[in-house]
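Backbone description:
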Amino acid sequence: MAVKMKTVFFCQNCGYESSKWMGQCPSCREWNTLVEETVRPESKVAGTRSSGVRAATTEPQSLSSITMEEEERADTHIEELNRVLGGGLVRGSLTLVGGDPGIGKSTLLLQVARNMAADGRKMLYISGEESLRQIKIRANRIGSFTDNLKFLCETNLGTIEEVIRHTAPEIVVIDSIQTMYNEEVSSAPGSVSQVRESTSVLLRIAKSMNISIFIVGHVTKEGTVAGPRVLEHMVDTVLYFEGDRHASYRILRGVKNRFGSTNEIGVFEMREEGLAEVKNPSEFMLDGRPVDASGSVVTCSVEGTRPILIEIQALVCRSNFGFPRRQANGADFNRVNLLMAVLEKRIGLQMSDCDAYVNLAGGMRLAEPALDLGICLAIISSFKNRPIDPQVVAFGEVGLSGEVRSVSMTENRVMEAKKLGFTTCILPKVYESRLKNIEGMRIVGVRSVQDAMQIFS
């Protein structure tokens, strides 16, 4: 009996499914993103087999009867990547790596494949975008490769599954998921249906054969992985590459991780021979600081367990138009507007007729509240045209009443500042007595933004 086909409309931006076409997607509010695709209804048996999850036991179990073994992790020989993954690559995991075109996704995974193949592990690198000659040109810049790493150019998922089952590699790289297609799905490669079904097949392979699989995913103009949102729910780990592809640095951030923390970041520098680890990102971010320039202050943010010192720059000048312009690069725009309102209300800075620009040097994107005090001091410094001592680092959350609130991991932040040669630290008053005995570091506790203003007097 012939299987009846049905037509469904999918949103190319978020994966929303509708039985009819609409001009605007009701989920993500984007216009003209719904496309028509023909799908085949799955039977109950087929749906169970393609779910990608091991069959559950027939009898429910209590928590005490479940045995737990620590996940076996493989060293990628890239410390920054190991940090983001939570200590290494877990066997049988499915990892999604997203980022802008040309930012270094394929280069990083090729380096991972090279390092792990040198350890004697069987690696398989499958590319649907580049030919074998193109891969070799890029590989020659990175270094020498062992025969444990095999390459395959293929987009048919059925063929890929046969090759994986025949060669039985330990780790597989798929570059990229948008180029793969399943013959059982009638839509074109890169469509919502193809991406979802292809990921489901790869998930089943990873769990059933205990193979670690990396998937490269393209991103939309909003910076999210192209395809249905369910793609990120299916995989075990989601990593995003951040940074300007025209700049030298790259930041690898874990957005989802079933085997570790989602707050860790890894910092890399793009060089001719590939991506190099940045062991001390604070020193890297502070390189090239201006001397005796107003509107510049160093603050400390914590990403996971790593404190990072970063320079905040502010520029406040009189506006030539009736409506002043405000802009924030790397910081939350709404948060900057809120802090400027606090400065106008609590300490009387009249900036309603001024243009204001706030920038996190190095192109970093941070949203931690501990940056508030640094942003306030940078704005005040630029408005009064008075430079702040370059040996000063400041951090703390600022409330609507102008009070400076406590933040986490304060001692780690202070020790990171001391390690890089800073001599004065402005922080919430509650920590002044606890940290006053740190040798070589002058601790200045402030209760409010008004107290922090004393450094300009």
About this structure: The first helix runs from residue 44 to 49. Residues 6-43 form one domain.
